Amino acid sequence: MKDKKITVGVLMGGPSSEREVSLVTGQAVLNGLDKTKYKAVAIEMTKDCKFNMFVGKKKVAVDFVNKHRNYFDIIFIALHGSPGEDGGVQGLFETLGIKYTGPGVLASALAMNKVFAGQIYLVNHLPHPEFINVKKEGWKKYSVEVLKEVKEKIGYPCVVKPVDQGSAVGVSIVQNEKELVTAFNKTVNKYPWLMVQKFIKGQEGTCGVVEKNGQMIPLPPTHIKPNLGSFYDYKSKYKAGGSTHICPADFSQEINERMQVLAQMAHKALRCVGMSRTDMFVEDNGNIWIIETNTIPGMTATSLFPESAKAAGISFPKLLDMVVTSGLKR
Predict the structure, then answer these.
(1) Catalytic pick among 17, 167, 256, 303
(2) Is 285 a catalytic residue?
(3) Is 298 assigned a catalytic role?
(4) CATH number belonging to domain 111-127+201-328
(5) If we measure between CA atoms, which residue out of 187, 210, 182, 191 comes closest to residue 275?
(6) CB neighbours of 305 closer than 8 A, spacing ≥ 6?
(7) Could you say which of 82, 238, 326, 327 is catalytic?
(8) 3-state secondary structure at position 282
(9) Which residues of the chain does CATH 3.40.50.20 include?
(10) Amino acid 169: pLDDT
């Protein structure tokens, strides 16, 4: 008698600005899971945060609390942005005793918030650019003081970014105070908590970590060359031909190995589980700076995480199997 297949609910969609990317990631996971081992069921989180699953062509409302708590063996979280990447749905599943993939509530919340993640990096002696953070009300009341602090502590050029967004949403590189004021006024009403970070002139790279039997496995680093923008922005990330990925990275062996060490250190410092991908900048002098850690890396056709796994000899179905297995053993 054949073993019973493991039922995996692939959760995608959601209300965030990364909804469309999440749907693509979710579909890739659905198609990539080993069909001899897993029964994959699509779960869409709507823009108003309701859950629907698709059984064949039939759409069924999912009630995790009363009806479907034990329906799935595990949920594969493919939700980019909030509430999938910031600990929100992880908290729901923890409360209900439902297993899920990827980092837990605390790691997700810390990694999604660039201020908190930056503080975690620095307290663990990881290289992270100098930054300040400003909330909407602070900017409205104390803009003169903010501008003075940026000039004295950060300098120009600098990077303005929302604290809690992914996929480079809302990011601006500004060259002077006038551009900084414009960027703030343009961004702060939509994203009321902003970070101003020292601009690092260097080449962009990233390094993923996947776990097997609780042990971290660093993937080959990737050198990212944006083709559609001055940096690895939303268009460069997701449009065909938007960027060139060199994996394993064509940095020196020493730098590649150092990137792998830093990715593992960031994974551990944030208490990630299962998988993560840490983005970095490499300066011409060899200095490496950690920028941020992604707890739910993209799994689209142009995504970095599965590309680097493939370079390590790990097929996409095997990569997904490792992530699911780690979640089941949580």
Answers:
(1) 167
(2) no
(3) yes
(4) 3.30.470.20
(5) 210
(6) 208, 219, 275, 277, 297, 298, 299, 319
(7) 238
(8) strand
(9) 6-101
(10) 73
Annotated catalytic residue 277: yes
Q: Which residue among the candidates 294, 303, 308, 326 is catalytic per the annotation?
A: 294
Residue 279 designated active-site: yes
DSSP state of 152: I
pTM: 0.91
Token duo for residue 183: 């960027």
pLDDT in tens, 223-239: 999 876 555 544 455 45
Q: From CA 86, how far away is CA 114, in angstroms rounded?
A: 11
* Separation between Cα atoms, residue 83 and residue 87, nearest integer Å: 7
Residues of the chain with pLDDT under 50: 1, 233-235, 238
Do residues 202 and 281 touch, judged by C-beta distance below 8 A? Answer: yes
Q: What is the sign of the dihedral through the CA atoms of 188, 191, 195 and 196?
A: negative
* Partners of 216 in the β-ladder: 211
CATH 3.30.1490.20 spans which residues of the chain?
A: 131-198
For the chain, how many residues are written? 330
Residue 296 φ then ψ, to 5°: -130, 80
- The CATH code that applies to domain 131-198 is 3.30.1490.20
Query: Could you give the residue range(s) of every CATH 3.30.470.20 domain in the chain?
Result: 111-127+201-328
Report the alpha-carbon distance of residue 212 to residue 280 in Å, rounded: 24
The pLDDT tens digits for 22-65 are 999 999 999 999 999 999 999 999 999 999 998 878 899 999 99
pLDDT at 1: 40
Residue with tokens 């600098």: 158
Catalytic residue among 208, 298, 303, 327: 298
Architecture of domain 6-101: 3-Layer(aba) Sandwich (3.40)
